[in-house]
Amino acid sequence: MLEIKNLTKEYKNVTAVDYLDLTIKDGEFFGLLGPNGAGKTTTVRMISTITPKTSGEIVIDGESIDRNLTAIKAKIGVVPQQNNLENETSAWENLEVHGILYGINKEKRRKKIEELFEFTGLTDRKDDLVKTYSGGMKRKLMIARALLHEPEILLLDEPTVGLDASARRKMWDLLKRLKSNGLTVLLTTHYIEEAEVLCDRVGLINKGQLLKLDTPWNLIEEVGKVTVEYFKDGETQEEFFRSREEANVYAGELEGDVRIRPSNLEDVFLKFTNRRVEEA
Amino acid sequence: MNGLYGILWQEFIVFKRKFWATTIGFLVSPILYLVAFGWGLGSGMEIDGVSYMAYIIPGIIAMNTMMTSFNNTANSINISRIFYKTFEYYVISPINMTIYALGKIIAGAFYGIYSGILITVIVSIFTSDLVITPYFIFIALLNCFVFSALGFLIGLLINSHADMSKFMSFVITPMSFLCGTFFPIDKMPEILRWFIYLLPLTHTNIALRTTGETAGNMMLHAAVLMLYLIVIFIVSIRLCKKVE
Hints:
Chain A is of the alpha/beta class. Chain A is 36% helix and 28% strand.
């Protein structure tokens, strides 16, 4: 279990994370959803101890986490947004070094590395230098590396950013397999669809504060599960309804280009922040 | 100890993979210095009663091991912080930052030691001017560690590639020319001489040419280098524990 208590990060002029309180349960796939600059990455970086926190506490299984408390750090696996693999060595060597650093004995390490190459579909390329890998392959290798020491919780910071559509789908499949294995995951994303597809619960975050926290479906229900979208006064407008019937009645009175569709997390975000995620 | 082994193994496989490029790269500048200053400028010249070639060889070893150790560690840390982000990877890992610093400094010093060995081999082919004693080896090793540690500290402190070359121009390059590499420091004006005497490379240069030194002075040079190493290492670790 990961508990985040009153977590705050202040820079000179901005508060990137503002008294964030959050608990991620064991076996949960939790999504932190928000626009760029909302404080998602800063939160993940504070949990990974890369960024020192201004105040607050991060607790894993009852133990506080800090850069200089080394033992506890083996309980987390981190996949940062930016590639931090050793490019001049092979994929296998990257995992081997990781296994050594995390103190996994040779026999177990070698076996687990083979399993993870299998799991991520990189077995054929395991002896190639990382610098010859595509963006998607590097991301998969980082996931394999983060899983090697069997962490209690996996932090995934924007795992599909910069990947093309096909690589993104493959990444989702991989993440779904992790989910079915029962791993606890904290994922950050600004792709609404990603949170909807993968997450058990979603925290909407904006300007360092948690706006809403619930299952994706409950959030959609709260807003209204049917959306009527229409174009008026030069802008696309949305209205939300509890049922298709109500939506039909409303849409019937409108003129011009009208569309009735199921609501999604983007609508939820829009409603609670009064802006589209991409606009941030 | 897992941490130290892991870091060194990682460094070793990179070294192995780039063995020939590294080896050839390390040979270029010492050979140029030997040719230009030793045979070219210095032929027929004597300093302190020895041929200029015999005088300059220990200087070139001191200067080159300094440059190589410093550059390797400083660039490795700087690039890993700013560009490759692998520094973050070690921060996330359960490795104590003291072990990380130690691993990186040892790896950088190894490059310096390797370049020192290469120069020694090259020089020994052409002349018998170089006399290697245990004290010589000890000082040369210490020199590699001092400048590798300095490289580690500077790599942590400096946040851009441009500032890194400024540090080279204002600190490392002047040291290589002023600290007795090419001529004895007693040829310098007195005020400057005292300042130069405080710099670590000066002590390496004097110590590697042990002719006429008392045992007390020999101890002093080793002690100065040791002091530099310990202070730089402690400051580096403190910084390492909080740097972002």
